Amino acid sequence: MPEKTEAKAEETKPTRATALLIVGGAVVTLLLCAVGWGAMRYFGIPKSAGEFGDTFGAANALFSGMAFLGIIVAIFLQKRELELQRQELELTRGELARQSKALELQGDTFRQQNFDATFFQMLSLHHQIVAGIKMGAGDQKVSGRGCFILIYRGFGDKFTTSKYSGIDKSLILIKAAYEEYYDFIQPAVGHYFRNLYTIVKFVDRSDVNDKQFYTNLIRAQLSSHELLMLFYNCAAGIGRAKFKRLVERYAILKHVPFDSLLDPSHDTWFESEAYSSSAAKQEAI
Q1: Is residue 251 one of the residues assigned to a domain?
Q2: Mean pLDDT value of segment 19-46
Protein backbone atom coordinates (compact mmCIF):
# COMPACT_ATOMS: atom_id res chain seq x y z
CA MET A 1 0.00 0.00 0.00
CA PRO A 2 2.68 2.62 0.87
CA GLU A 3 4.45 1.94 -2.43
CA LYS A 4 1.22 2.48 -4.41
CA THR A 5 0.56 5.73 -2.54
CA GLU A 6 4.06 7.03 -3.29
CA ALA A 7 3.75 6.03 -6.97
CA LYS A 8 0.43 7.86 -7.22
CA ALA A 9 1.88 10.94 -5.56
CA GLU A 10 4.78 10.83 -7.99
CA GLU A 11 2.39 10.70 -10.96
CA THR A 12 0.37 13.76 -9.71
CA LYS A 13 3.45 15.81 -8.90
CA PRO A 14 3.69 18.72 -11.41
CA THR A 15 6.58 18.60 -13.78
CA ARG A 16 9.22 21.29 -13.99
CA ALA A 17 7.72 22.66 -17.21
CA THR A 18 4.28 22.92 -15.61
CA ALA A 19 5.73 24.72 -12.61
CA LEU A 20 7.56 27.22 -14.86
CA LEU A 21 4.34 27.79 -16.82
CA ILE A 22 2.40 28.54 -13.66
CA VAL A 23 5.07 30.90 -12.36
CA GLY A 24 5.32 32.66 -15.71
CA GLY A 25 1.58 33.10 -15.91
CA ALA A 26 1.50 34.55 -12.41
CA VAL A 27 4.33 36.99 -13.25
CA VAL A 28 2.56 38.16 -16.41
CA THR A 29 -0.70 38.65 -14.53
CA LEU A 30 1.01 40.65 -11.79
CA LEU A 31 2.79 42.82 -14.37
CA LEU A 32 -0.47 43.55 -16.16
CA CYS A 33 -2.16 44.41 -12.89
CA ALA A 34 0.77 46.62 -11.91
CA VAL A 35 0.69 48.44 -15.25
CA GLY A 36 -3.05 48.97 -15.01
CA TRP A 37 -2.87 50.15 -11.43
CA GLY A 38 0.02 52.50 -12.17
CA ALA A 39 -1.70 54.00 -15.22
CA MET A 40 -4.91 54.66 -13.36
CA ARG A 41 -2.96 56.22 -10.44
CA TYR A 42 -0.95 58.65 -12.56
CA PHE A 43 -3.37 59.30 -15.45
CA GLY A 44 -6.67 58.80 -13.74
CA ILE A 45 -9.47 56.39 -14.42
CA PRO A 46 -10.06 55.92 -18.17
CA LYS A 47 -13.31 57.44 -19.41
CA SER A 48 -13.89 54.88 -22.15
CA ALA A 49 -13.06 51.25 -22.98
CA GLY A 50 -10.64 52.40 -25.71
CA GLU A 51 -8.68 54.49 -23.27
CA PHE A 52 -8.65 51.57 -20.86
CA GLY A 53 -7.22 49.30 -23.58
CA ASP A 54 -4.61 51.89 -24.55
CA THR A 55 -3.45 51.84 -20.96
CA PHE A 56 -1.98 48.38 -21.59
CA GLY A 57 -0.47 49.22 -25.01
CA ALA A 58 3.05 49.61 -23.68
CA ALA A 59 2.70 46.40 -21.68
CA ASN A 60 1.44 44.56 -24.77
CA ALA A 61 4.43 45.80 -26.80
CA LEU A 62 6.74 44.76 -23.99
CA PHE A 63 5.25 41.28 -23.76
CA SER A 64 5.23 40.89 -27.56
CA GLY A 65 8.94 41.68 -27.61
CA MET A 66 9.53 39.30 -24.74
CA ALA A 67 7.55 36.62 -26.56
CA PHE A 68 9.65 37.11 -29.72
CA LEU A 69 12.81 36.98 -27.64
CA GLY A 70 11.51 33.83 -25.97
CA ILE A 71 11.01 32.24 -29.39
CA ILE A 72 14.60 33.05 -30.36
CA VAL A 73 15.88 31.68 -27.05
CA ALA A 74 13.75 28.55 -27.55
CA ILE A 75 15.27 28.04 -31.02
CA PHE A 76 18.81 28.30 -29.67
CA LEU A 77 17.96 25.98 -26.77
CA GLN A 78 16.43 23.48 -29.17
CA LYS A 79 19.51 23.69 -31.38
CA ARG A 80 21.72 23.07 -28.37
CA GLU A 81 19.55 20.16 -27.32
CA LEU A 82 19.77 18.65 -30.80
CA GLU A 83 23.57 18.97 -30.69
CA LEU A 84 23.66 17.24 -27.33
CA GLN A 85 21.40 14.48 -28.66
CA ARG A 86 23.69 14.10 -31.68
CA GLN A 87 26.73 13.85 -29.42
CA GLU A 88 24.92 11.32 -27.26
CA LEU A 89 24.03 9.27 -30.33
CA GLU A 90 27.68 9.34 -31.47
CA LEU A 91 28.80 8.20 -28.03
CA THR A 92 26.17 5.48 -28.04
CA ARG A 93 27.25 4.39 -31.52
CA GLY A 94 30.87 4.27 -30.40
CA GLU A 95 29.96 2.27 -27.32
CA LEU A 96 27.94 -0.19 -29.40
CA ALA A 97 30.88 -0.54 -31.79
CA ARG A 98 33.21 -1.28 -28.88
CA GLN A 99 30.76 -3.80 -27.47
CA SER A 100 30.41 -5.42 -30.89
CA LYS A 101 34.21 -5.63 -31.21
CA ALA A 102 34.47 -7.12 -27.72
CA LEU A 103 31.81 -9.71 -28.55
CA GLU A 104 33.61 -10.53 -31.80
CA LEU A 105 36.88 -11.03 -29.93
CA GLN A 106 35.12 -13.21 -27.37
CA GLY A 107 33.60 -15.24 -30.21
CA ASP A 108 37.02 -15.66 -31.84
CA THR A 109 38.53 -16.73 -28.51
CA PHE A 110 35.70 -19.19 -27.93
CA ARG A 111 36.08 -20.70 -31.42
CA GLN A 112 39.85 -20.96 -30.98
CA GLN A 113 39.43 -22.70 -27.63
CA ASN A 114 36.92 -25.13 -29.12
CA PHE A 115 39.23 -25.85 -32.04
CA ASP A 116 42.24 -26.45 -29.77
CA ALA A 117 40.25 -28.77 -27.51
CA THR A 118 38.98 -30.82 -30.46
CA PHE A 119 42.35 -30.88 -32.21
CA PHE A 120 44.29 -32.18 -29.20
CA GLN A 121 41.58 -34.73 -28.45
CA MET A 122 41.94 -36.03 -32.01
CA LEU A 123 45.73 -36.07 -31.62
CA SER A 124 45.38 -38.00 -28.37
CA LEU A 125 43.09 -40.49 -30.08
CA HIS A 126 45.70 -40.92 -32.80
CA HIS A 127 48.33 -41.82 -30.20
CA GLN A 128 45.95 -44.41 -28.80
CA ILE A 129 45.46 -45.89 -32.28
CA VAL A 130 49.23 -46.07 -32.80
CA ALA A 131 49.72 -47.71 -29.40
CA GLY A 132 47.01 -50.25 -30.24
CA ILE A 133 48.65 -51.50 -33.44
CA LYS A 134 50.10 -54.98 -32.93
CA MET A 135 51.91 -57.35 -35.28
CA GLY A 136 53.62 -60.72 -34.98
CA ALA A 137 53.19 -63.36 -32.31
CA GLY A 138 55.06 -64.65 -29.28
CA ASP A 139 58.56 -63.27 -28.91
CA GLN A 140 58.26 -61.63 -32.33
CA LYS A 141 55.22 -59.59 -31.31
CA VAL A 142 55.64 -55.83 -31.83
CA SER A 143 53.28 -53.00 -30.93
CA GLY A 144 53.03 -49.27 -31.48
CA ARG A 145 55.33 -47.38 -33.84
CA GLY A 146 57.71 -50.32 -34.08
CA CYS A 147 55.08 -52.00 -36.28
CA PHE A 148 55.74 -49.51 -39.05
CA ILE A 149 59.36 -50.66 -39.28
CA LEU A 150 58.12 -54.20 -39.95
CA ILE A 151 55.38 -52.97 -42.29
CA TYR A 152 57.75 -50.94 -44.43
CA ARG A 153 60.34 -53.72 -44.53
CA GLY A 154 57.60 -56.10 -45.60
CA PHE A 155 56.57 -53.75 -48.39
CA GLY A 156 60.16 -53.48 -49.60
CA ASP A 157 60.63 -57.26 -49.46
CA LYS A 158 57.41 -57.83 -51.34
CA PHE A 159 58.41 -55.45 -54.08
CA THR A 160 61.91 -56.90 -54.54
CA THR A 161 61.05 -60.58 -54.20
CA SER A 162 57.70 -60.76 -55.96
CA LYS A 163 56.62 -60.57 -59.57
CA TYR A 164 57.57 -56.88 -59.55
CA SER A 165 61.24 -57.68 -58.93
CA GLY A 166 63.57 -56.49 -61.65
CA ILE A 167 60.85 -54.52 -63.42
CA ASP A 168 61.09 -50.77 -63.91
CA LYS A 169 59.92 -49.17 -60.66
CA SER A 170 57.31 -46.93 -62.24
CA LEU A 171 54.32 -45.52 -60.38
CA ILE A 172 51.97 -48.00 -62.06
CA LEU A 173 53.99 -50.99 -60.81
CA ILE A 174 54.41 -49.53 -57.33
CA LYS A 175 50.68 -48.88 -57.22
CA ALA A 176 49.94 -52.52 -58.12
CA ALA A 177 52.41 -53.79 -55.53
CA TYR A 178 51.12 -51.46 -52.82
CA GLU A 179 47.47 -52.32 -53.43
CA GLU A 180 48.29 -56.01 -53.14
CA TYR A 181 50.32 -55.42 -49.97
CA TYR A 182 47.72 -53.07 -48.45
CA ASP A 183 45.13 -55.84 -48.46
CA PHE A 184 47.44 -57.67 -46.07
CA ILE A 185 48.19 -54.73 -43.70
CA GLN A 186 44.81 -53.00 -43.88
CA PRO A 187 43.41 -54.59 -40.68
CA ALA A 188 46.37 -53.19 -38.74
CA VAL A 189 46.81 -49.72 -40.26
CA GLY A 190 43.63 -48.91 -42.17
CA HIS A 191 42.10 -46.93 -39.28
CA TYR A 192 45.52 -45.28 -38.68
CA PHE A 193 45.59 -43.66 -42.14
CA ARG A 194 41.89 -42.75 -42.00
CA ASN A 195 42.30 -41.00 -38.64
CA LEU A 196 45.48 -39.20 -39.74
CA TYR A 197 43.69 -37.91 -42.84
CA THR A 198 40.73 -36.78 -40.71
CA ILE A 199 42.97 -34.70 -38.42
CA VAL A 200 44.73 -32.94 -41.30
CA LYS A 201 41.41 -32.34 -43.06
CA PHE A 202 39.96 -30.92 -39.83
CA VAL A 203 42.76 -28.34 -39.69
CA ASP A 204 42.48 -27.58 -43.42
CA ARG A 205 38.73 -26.88 -43.22
CA SER A 206 38.93 -24.81 -40.04
CA ASP A 207 39.12 -21.00 -39.90
CA VAL A 208 42.18 -20.82 -37.62
CA ASN A 209 44.83 -18.32 -38.68
CA ASP A 210 47.98 -20.47 -38.54
CA LYS A 211 47.04 -23.84 -40.03
CA GLN A 212 50.68 -24.64 -40.73
CA PHE A 213 51.41 -24.55 -37.00
CA TYR A 214 48.89 -27.32 -36.32
CA THR A 215 49.95 -29.48 -39.27
CA ASN A 216 53.53 -29.10 -38.04
CA LEU A 217 52.38 -30.57 -34.72
CA ILE A 218 50.82 -33.49 -36.59
CA ARG A 219 54.00 -34.04 -38.62
CA ALA A 220 56.09 -33.97 -35.44
CA GLN A 221 54.21 -37.07 -34.20
CA LEU A 222 55.24 -39.21 -37.19
CA SER A 223 58.27 -41.48 -37.14
CA SER A 224 60.50 -42.01 -40.19
CA HIS A 225 58.83 -45.29 -41.13
CA GLU A 226 55.37 -43.78 -40.65
CA LEU A 227 56.40 -41.07 -43.11
CA LEU A 228 57.65 -43.68 -45.57
CA MET A 229 54.37 -45.60 -45.44
CA LEU A 230 52.44 -42.32 -45.69
CA PHE A 231 54.55 -41.47 -48.75
CA TYR A 232 53.53 -44.63 -50.62
CA ASN A 233 49.98 -44.56 -49.28
CA CYS A 234 49.49 -41.10 -50.83
CA ALA A 235 51.54 -41.76 -53.97
CA ALA A 236 50.19 -45.19 -54.90
CA GLY A 237 47.49 -46.12 -52.38
CA ILE A 238 44.06 -44.96 -51.26
CA GLY A 239 45.49 -41.64 -50.04
CA ARG A 240 46.22 -40.54 -53.61
CA ALA A 241 42.64 -39.34 -54.18
CA LYS A 242 42.31 -36.85 -51.30
CA PHE A 243 45.14 -37.07 -48.79
CA LYS A 244 47.98 -36.36 -51.26
CA ARG A 245 46.98 -32.74 -51.93
CA LEU A 246 46.88 -32.01 -48.18
CA VAL A 247 50.29 -33.65 -47.69
CA GLU A 248 51.66 -31.35 -50.39
CA ARG A 249 49.89 -28.26 -49.11
CA TYR A 250 51.24 -28.56 -45.55
CA ALA A 251 54.67 -30.14 -46.23
CA ILE A 252 53.84 -33.28 -44.23
CA LEU A 253 56.72 -35.16 -45.90
CA LYS A 254 59.35 -32.57 -44.99
CA HIS A 255 61.32 -35.06 -42.87
CA VAL A 256 60.79 -38.20 -44.94
CA PRO A 257 64.10 -40.15 -45.21
CA PHE A 258 64.71 -40.03 -48.98
CA ASP A 259 67.57 -42.52 -48.80
CA SER A 260 65.09 -45.14 -47.53
CA LEU A 261 62.68 -44.84 -50.45
CA LEU A 262 62.39 -47.93 -52.67
CA ASP A 263 63.95 -45.83 -55.41
CA PRO A 264 65.44 -42.29 -55.22
CA SER A 265 63.40 -41.20 -58.25
CA HIS A 266 60.14 -41.68 -56.36
CA ASP A 267 60.45 -38.26 -54.72
CA THR A 268 59.28 -36.72 -58.02
CA TRP A 269 55.81 -38.18 -57.44
CA PHE A 270 55.01 -35.27 -55.11
CA GLU A 271 55.14 -31.53 -55.63
CA SER A 272 58.15 -29.89 -54.01
CA GLU A 273 55.82 -28.23 -51.46
CA ALA A 274 55.28 -31.64 -49.87
CA TYR A 275 58.87 -31.53 -48.64
CA SER A 276 59.36 -27.85 -47.89
CA SER A 277 56.52 -25.38 -48.36
CA SER A 278 57.08 -21.64 -48.07
CA ALA A 279 55.36 -21.73 -44.69
CA ALA A 280 57.40 -24.70 -43.54
CA LYS A 281 60.69 -22.99 -44.43
CA GLN A 282 59.99 -20.29 -41.85
CA GLU A 283 59.57 -22.69 -38.95
CA ALA A 284 62.32 -23.67 -36.56
CA ILE A 285 61.59 -27.37 -36.49
Answers
A1: yes
A2: 62
